[in-house]
Amino acid sequence: MQINFVKSEVPDEGTLVVGTAETELPSGLLSDLDKQAKGAIARAMKAARFTGAKRQVVELLAPAGIELDRLLIVGLGKADKLDGGAAESLGSSAVARLLTSGEKTVTVLLPKADAEQAARVAQGAVLRSYRFDQYRTTQKKTEKPTLVKVNIGTSDPAEAKKAWRTNEAVANAIFYARDLVTEPPNVLHPEEFAKRVRKLEDMGLEVEVLGVKEMTKLGMGSLVGVGQGSVRESQLLVMQWKGAKNKDAQPIAFVGKGVTFDTGGISIKPAAGMDAMKYDMGGAAAVTGLMHALAGRKARANVVGICGLVENMPDGNAQRPGDVVKSMSGQTIEVLNTDAEGRLVLADALWYCQNRFKPKFMVDLATLTGAIRVSLGLEIAGLFSNNDELAARLLAAGKAEGEELWRMPMGERFDKMIDSPIADMKNIGGAFGGSITAAQFIQRFVNKVPWAHLDIAGTAWFEEARGSTPKGASGYGVRLLNRLVADHYES
Ligand code: BES
Ligand code: MN
Ligand code: ZN
C-alpha cells in the first residue's frame, strides 16, 4: 500500500473518504460538496441515520453534481475526542471498505489533520490492508485487492511523512509477526522460524540460535522435554538490538513462547479446533516483531529478545504425564499434563535470559492458557507481574496502542497449588484459576528481577476483523512493547 501525504483538498475524480465527527448535518467541506450535489449528501446521511459515531459509514456512488465516483463519509466519534485512535479508525474503516472494491486510489480527509493525525490515518489504513495470499493459486478477480494508493490530506505533508516513518517501521514489524503466525505449521517449524529470523541480521540485529545439544548441555531439561516427541529440533532463539549509546549498558528483555504447533502431546487435545494451535507461537512472533520494529526505527535502547521454539507432538519418544524433568534452574518439575507445555518452555528461556543478560526487567508473552479467554474474553490480554511500576507502564502502553491489558492477582495462595508430592513443583494447578497458577509456575523461574507475564491466548488471533486488525493473526504485542520501549527506555 502506497501512502502519500497531500494538502487537504477535494480531488476532481475517484474516491473521497471524509472523516466526520458526531453531527447530524454535513459540515466543513461536506457542506460545500452538499451544495454542489443539491442536498443529496444531507439526504443520504439522514436516510442512513448517520450520527458520526466511530466507524459508521455512508457510501454514495456517482453522486450527481460532483465529479467523484464514490464518496465515503466515515464517523469519527465525539468532536472533542478526535484523538489518534479516531484518526486510525478512519484509515482502517476506509481500507476495510475499499480494499477489494475495484478502486485503486483513494483520498482521505479529516477535520483536524495535523501531521500526527495524518500519520495515524496511514497506520490504520496500512495495518488493515494486511493479507496472506501466498498459498492461493486461484482467486476470483473480485477477491483480489485493488486499492494500491492512499492519499491523506494534512496541513503539513512533510511533517506527516516524518511521523509516518516511525509508524511504518512498526507496521512492517506487525506484518512480519502476522506472517509468522499465519504460516502453516508444516512450513513454520522451530528450525524454519529460526532460519527466517537469522535474516534479520541484515537490519542490524544480532541473532544466535541454540540447538538441542547446546540446550541439553545448559541443563534445559524442561524446554527440551517438550520437543522430544517432535522430528523438528527445538531451538532457542536469542536476538539482540544494541541501539543505546553505550552498547554494554544493561538491557531490557522480552521472552516469547514459540510452540509452532501444540497438539497437547500425549495429553492430546480434541480434534475440533486443533488447527488453531499453529498460533501457539504468537508470543514468539510478538517478541520477534518487536525486535524488527526496534531495528527498523533504530531505537536508542539495548534490548534482548529470546524465543523458546518447540513443537509439542505425541510420539514414542514424547514425554509422558508423570515424567519428572530438571530445569536449568535446578528445580525439578513433575509433568502431569503434557499440554501445559508453554510454561515448561518459558521456565528455561526466562532462566537463561536473566542469568546471561542480567536485564533491568523481563516481560514474557505467551498464548499460555485457555482459562484467560474465559476470564477476560478475546479483546484484552492478562497481565501478571511482581512489580507495580512495570505493570503500570505496560497498562498505559496497552491503552495508548489499543492493545489492552488487565492485571490479574498473584500470591502465595495460588503458588501453593502447584506444589508436587514428589518434585519441586507440578506443571498444572487444580481446576480453578488456571491462568494464575500458570503465572505462578513461571514466577518460580524469576529471581529478584522485575518481571511481567502477558497471557495473550485470547488476543493473538482475531476470530473477526476489529479496528486495524483483519481476521486472523493480530501481531498483538508488537505495538504495546514498542510503545513501552519508546516511552521509558530510550536515551
Ligand atoms: N496453547 C494452549 C493454550 C491456548 C488455548 C492458547 C487456546 C490459545 C487458545 C496451552 O498450551 C494449553 O494447552 N493450556 C492448557 C493448560 C492446561 C492443560 C492446564 C489449557 O489452557 O487448557
Ligand atoms: Mn498446550
Ligand atoms: Zn500451548
Task: Walk me through what this model shows.
The chain is built from 15 helices and 19 strands. With 491 residues, the chain is α/β, with parallel strands linked by helices. The strands form 4 sheets. An 8-stranded mixed beta sheet has the order 7-8-10-9-13-17-14-15, with helices on both faces. The radius of gyration is 24 Å and the shape is elongated. It binds ligand BES, manganese (II) ion (MN) and zinc ion.
Features:
alpha/beta; 8-stranded mixed β-sheet; binds manganese (II) ion; binds zinc ion
Q: In percent terms, what proportion of residues is strand?
A: 15-25%
Mean pLDDT: 97
Q: Biggest sheet, in brief?
A: 8 strands, mixed
Please give the share of residues in helix.
25-40%
Number of helices, counting only DSSP H or I runs of 4 residues or more: 15
Provide the list of bound ligands, each named once: ligand BES, manganese (II) ion, zinc ion
Read across the widest sheet, the strand sequence of neighbours is 7-8-10-9-13-17-14-15
In short:
The protein is 35% helix and 21% strand. It is α/β, with parallel strands linked by helices. The longest helix has 26 residues, at 157-182.
Give me the secondary-structure topology:
Blueprint lengths: L1 E6 L7 E6 L8 H8 L3 H8 L9 E5 L8 E6 L8 H15 L6 E5 L5 H14 L20 E6 L2 H26 L7 H9 L7 E5 L1 H6 L3 H7 L7 E8 L9 E11 L19 H15 L5 E11 L10 E4 L5 E4 L6 H16 L4 E5 L3 H7 L4 E5 L2 H14 L3 E3 L4 H4 L9 E2 L7 H10 L7 E5 L5 E2 L9 E2 L4 H11 L3
Parallel strand pairs: 1-6, 2-4, 2-5, 5-6, 9-10, 9-13, 12-16, 13-17, 14-15
Antiparallel strand pairs: 3-4, 7-8, 8-10, 11-12, 14-17, 18-19
The site of zinc ion has 5 residues, from strand 9.
